[in-house]
Input
Amino acid sequence: MKVWCLGIFLGVNFSLLSQDTTLIQEVEVKANLLWNRDSLVFVPELRRKKIEQIQAEDIGQLLQLFSGVQVKSYGGIGGLKSVSIRGLGGQHTAFVVNGVAVPPDQTGQMNLGTIQTDNLERISLSYSGSELLPASSLCFGSTISMETFEGSFSSTNHALRATQKYGSFGQVDSYVAYKKGDSKNRYFVAASGKIRSFGGKYPFSIKNGSQQYEGVRENNHYRDLNFNIGAGCRFRNESTLKLHYQKLSITQELPGPIVLYTATANQDLMQKNDQLQLSYNYELKKWMNGNVFVLLKNTDLQYVDSNYLNAEGLMKSDYNLQLMDVGLNFSFPLTKKMKLNFSNEGQFQKMQSNTYSENAPQRFHYFSALIYQLTLGKYLILETQGSLQAIVDNHSERKSQIHLNPFVQFKTIPLWNKRISGYFSYRNSFRMPSFNELYYNKIGNLDLLPEKAHQLAIGAEYSSATKSFGHLLRFNAYANKVSDKIVAVPTMNLFLWSIQNIGKVEILGVDLHYTLGVLLAKVQKLELGMNYNFQSVKDKTDKFSPTYNHQIAYMPKHSGNVDLTYSLKSYSLRIGVFANDTRYSLNENVEANRVDAFLVTDISVHAYWKIKEKSKLSLLFSCKNLFNQSYALVRNYVMPGRNFLISLSYAFN
Output
């Protein structure tokens, strides 16, 4: 049962590509587009063309296509989605949007379910600090970078996008965006708006022992409004100034776990985010480049429990988080073979709540990172990094923290006609408990300790391409040792969690990726991508504990996906499968905590028609969960069965 999913989908199905390989462009295969050869690090990514074909509702559905990534989803559209990369929690992953670090809100982690994909130009995942990144992202184990329509320059005078989607279970999604650019890339002004709603009442079927239970998901309505404005200008010295503002408003019902013979959950969550970011990227006579950024964020959140048993018959919990983030990064070459990067960043957070009787929690978090890169001979590059974190909380029970986090990596310059490259790295990372984990009503645990991790990784890539054929094989292996790992498990609903430290956790993992592209004829092409992930994430705290040497909750040992896309002129057919091995809802791996393995198949048909020279009309029809599988990524949070989506898009460039 442990590996049945892998055998089935490798032998029978083809599924979603983990990277936007763009292997075949017109009549030639370009395998070297699979990663960034300039930085000489593995950078799997998805670009706009592939993102449009996938038609994901949020970036959580995109990230689960990358090898080494696990996404925990607690429902359909709008449901909470969190990420775990190489066995480490989401707090070990930094998010960078248009070059600026975007910290999570007071829920303590980035909710991937609220980040739209319609405006994404590119999304990538990196583990190295060789890029010019904010200091906070350099201190973590991995970085997810995103570039958006409203945050990028355009060489066209006008760009217009509009998309209308209709789907099962009351899904309605409308998006429109416009950008005024300049043919010489001197400036741009852009705006976009998106409204999305989801009825959420989908049927489900689950097993209770030997009995099968059928019902309809309740208290699951979701609605959000997302508005973005962006502007930028380029100066004569190639320096750029960018401004971006985002307004996000979310209203959602919170479905509880499906537990038989209990009353329907009746909790709601309202959230409003305002975010303003300003960045200046500069280049000084080609001997130094860098950027300065400022980010201001205000988040209001209200949790309402209409089933709460008190005199009022209602409980309201209000939270407000104010955050200011300022950063400075610069890079300059010392010689032809030596390069230095230096980054500084300071974050100030303040949380206010009607549930907290003491002084409002405040935190100052300082990040600093120094990266030194040296080319050794003809074939090897050494990269070292020293990062510093200093944290001061105003709470009397929280001690100030200062931590140094080293990183070292050896990587090869691509060898054998740029077909082979490899690396070996060590990283030490550290993450503080969030305000959510410390202070939230019925959630907070003031006894939580910071989580620390030692990370070893080794990997290699091989690629080959001709005019009609190209393929790439990527291999990564890693070993992590984590102290005081912070684990959160939902209890009554997606707002109330049980949070604890696990003293010692050992992680061993392997991820494999293979991509194949074949040009069948001048107007036909075939793309195949496959991923396989193995993760052993075990509790090593106490030999006498019932959870000793057991897999940590919700970490499958085996998972993967495969993808087959066939294109004929402007038409394409995609068949996709995603599979997950058995997991356990608690750290004790017993039958009562078992969450069954699953395999889900999606299929979609995509077509586009050019209207004149610069306009394009696209139509996509997809059927997700084709075989109507009943499955859950998290115990009792059943995912939608067979569902359909039709999407009509117009683009003018």
